[in-house]
Amino acid sequence: MRQIGEINISPIGLGTVKFGRNTNVKYPHPFDLPSLKDLRVFLDLAHALGVNFLDTAPAYGESENRLGQLIAKQRHDWIISTKVGEDYQGSSVFNFSSKHTRLSIEKSMKKLRTEYLDIVFIHCNDNDLENLRSTDVISSLRAMQEKGYVRYIGASTKTLAGGSYAIDNTDLVMVSNTSSQLPILEKAHTKKKPTIIKKPLQSGFSTNIHSSIKKALAHPSVASIIVGSINKAHLRANIKYATSL
Ligand SMILES: NC(=O)c1ccc[n+]([C@@H]2O[C@H](COP(=O)([O-])OP(=O)(O)OC[C@H]3O[C@@H](n4cnc5c(N)ncnc54)[C@H](OP(=O)(O)O)[C@@H]3O)[C@@H](O)[C@H]2O)c1
């Protein structure tokens, strides 16, 4: 287990885009959404293999709603991150206002059937620095954190300027596993802020899964890498490899 503040988190987390959305996604192959029954078996397997971290978002279609149905009775077994700022209504819509941030958190808690969220990331678009610096999203999240609805706040960023601002002003940052993001991992490490790696397998386009997992887990700032999957054999293989490192 690795640490995000007081949270113990598994080095491999589960990305749940494929739990709830199969339109306008950038995976190599089309797929049907799994049944709730199949997802229950999948989550039970993930838990048995030592995974305790689930990453979701309002922009992932039915993902939050389905996770809520699946884990309501085992809420304390899981660390859940969701996001604010992006909604998906056939296409992406962004809103980082205070009002939208509050409403988004309330909706996420209702869908996830929980009274608190472990981590909330700001779901930035290409203008991540503007999203973070020129809106009230960070102060709104801090207010929700003070009220106890959210344990840690972070941002999922794209640019070096956005990632750097997130490190200075939030608790953790989520970035892709590309060499261009190395300065963010380095700065986070220096500032003792954890990082999370998104899309560690290049959304399924990786030609060497082991090397992608090894590279994503390598930097000492990385608390967890969120691997998207709805395939039990892939999940088993990914965990087996990660635990052999
Ligand atoms: N914050 C953001 O802006 C943002 C953006 C993108 C993603 N994310 C988060 O990051 C998570 C992961 O990203 P992602 O789902 O785009 O990409 P990813 O984790 O890089 O790759 C997922 C793809 O790899 C396949 N895969 C997994 N294990 C495999 C294996 N052992 N062998 C072959 N293929 C394998 C999966 O297919 P199977 O289902 O067949 O295993 C899936 O299609 C998302 O679910 C989401 O939670 C965040």
UniProtKB/TrEMBL annotation:
Residues 11-207 form the NADP-dependent oxidoreductase domain. Transmembrane segments: none annotated. This is Aldo/keto reductase. It comes from OM182 bacterium.
